[in-house]
Amino acid sequence: MAINSLNEFAVALAVYARKKMDTVNRGALLIRCVGDGNVIAAVFGNDNYRFNDKVRREVELVRKHLKEAAVEELGFGLSPDGHTWTLLVKTDSQHYHTDVGRAFQVEMLKIFLDDVVWRSWRTACGLPSDRPELLEQYNFAK
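-> structure tokens emitted (142 positions)
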């Protein structure tokens, strides 16, 4: 399957996350591009995007946090059933001079993205961020 755009890649990634990562509610991924060695980051959720207003609000909040942090969105996609969503973002580590510095910056971006997606979900659900014991009560995947 030839991928012609980043939105198509986001859809393919959503299908992958839906089928292979269905037990993971949300998170961040780093994807190394085979052709040029570049890395793309992605945030995803397996939480019924199409039919759940809170999940769509979560994605709005993720986008807001990314914009505030000057992280560029590259593409967005849904699995065909609308359950899983993915949002691709640009990794920008080119201003680091060493491979170690670039790798560190990309890993820090992944940590930031993990935090953003979980913080956005908790906010969309009206949950306090400092009460992790409450998080297990809420599972939109059902």
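The domain at 6-126 is CATH 3.30.1360 (Gyrase A; domain 2).
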